[in-house]
């Protein structure tokens, strides 16, 4: 009887959750891409991905409420993603003018493609994003997405890789990239630690390694 009661409670909670999600509607299409969601509906995804989608939707709605003029498509989409900073907070991309200080940006291809583009230093924010995306696209077989942007300190990208060979090697044919994370911080080491921590949290079974780091002012 106890197991039946627990099952009924679980079903009831699932119905309530589904109803709330339906009332709010599905997250924007960009959220499914940024969260690497395997399914195109909120409830059909694993719990960690659902959490990413819900936070992405909330950040997107908040950004829309601010009535901010978007910089351009890819930047606005990634800016609404709470995971794009590598620290679980949204990058408020549209809140700052394009000419304020110096800028850095990190782009990456969707796994298993290993391409990453990182730029730090341009005073024009658009240029930072354009250069980083272009750098990524030179080796990517598909589109590159924004991981994060930063206006001070350093930014770093870390890849979660799983070995496909008995003998460890850095050759791309011997491993598969499962996730790419980013991190920012006041120093190179801080940014790299943040990137690796974010990477480990998404794929604990993989080996996370820093693949690129750049700092505004040289770091």
From TrEMBL:
Keywords: Signal. Residues 103-215 form the DUF4189 domain. Residues 1-23 form the signal peptide. InterPro entries: DUF4189 (IPR025240). This is DUF4189 domain-containing protein. It comes from Rhodovarius crocodyli.
